[in-house]
């Protein structure tokens, strides 16, 4: 499972907007206590987004995770049924 961020998506977008407004990346990182690597990772994921876009992204990521879990469970069920059938014949 992924580590939870200390920052909400809204806060991350706020940090990125500070940079867009003219603050340097190192200054923004120092102010918020993040590494430059984190800053650039956030920028690649959230750059140019508004808060509403980030909320949509989060809901799609959650739905995708739920669907992947359902798929994995159904594949496991199919595998179990195949094993049971193989033993009966």
Automatic annotation (TrEMBL):
This is Transposase. It comes from the Bacteria. It comes from Roseomonas fluvialis. Pfam families: HTH_Tnp_1 (PF01527). SUPFAM superfamilies: Homeodomain-like (SSF46689). InterPro entries: Homeodomain-like_sf, Transposase_8, Transposase_8_domain.
């Amino acid at each position: 499972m992924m580590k939870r961020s200390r920052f909400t998506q809204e806060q991350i977008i706020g940090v990125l907007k500070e940079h867009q407004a003219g603050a340097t990346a190192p200054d923004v990182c120092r102010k918020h206590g993040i590494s430059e690597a984190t800053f650039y990772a956030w920028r690649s994921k959230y750059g140019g987004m508004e808060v509403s876009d980030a909320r949509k992204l989060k809901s799609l990521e959650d739905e995708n995770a739920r669907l992947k879990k359902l798929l994995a469970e159904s594949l496991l069920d199919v595998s179990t049924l195949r094993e049971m059938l193989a033993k009966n014949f």
